[in-house]
Amino acid sequence: MISINSHLIILDRTQENPWEERIWHRQEAYNGHPIMVWGM
Q1: Please, what sign has the CA dihedral across residues 28, 29, 33, 37?
Q2: Host H or E run for residue 19
Q3: What is the SS3 assignment for 7?
Q4: What is the pLDDT of residues 1-40, one digit of tens each?
Q5: Any idea what DSSP says for residue 29?
Q6: Among 8, 13, 22, 30, which is most buried by a count of CB atoms within 10 Å?
Q7: How far apart are CA 37 and CA 9, in angstroms?
Q8: What's the pLDDT score for residue 19?
Q9: Residue 12 Cα distances to 2, 30, 33, 34, 40, angstroms
Q10: What's this model's pTM, rounded to 2 decimal places?
């Protein structure tokens, strides 16, 4: 079975940065396959 959806979640535990700066998302590609990257 091949996945058609891929997500990568990056956790930022830095206390100095407010949540507004730590939460983000963007789309990248790996070997031509789209990956949604989330920062939290």
Answers
A1: negative
A2: helix 19-22
A3: strand
A4: 666 788 888 888 888 888 888 899 999 998 888 899 999 8
A5: E
A6: 22
A7: 6
A8: 86
A9: 29, 22, 25, 23, 6
A10: 0.66
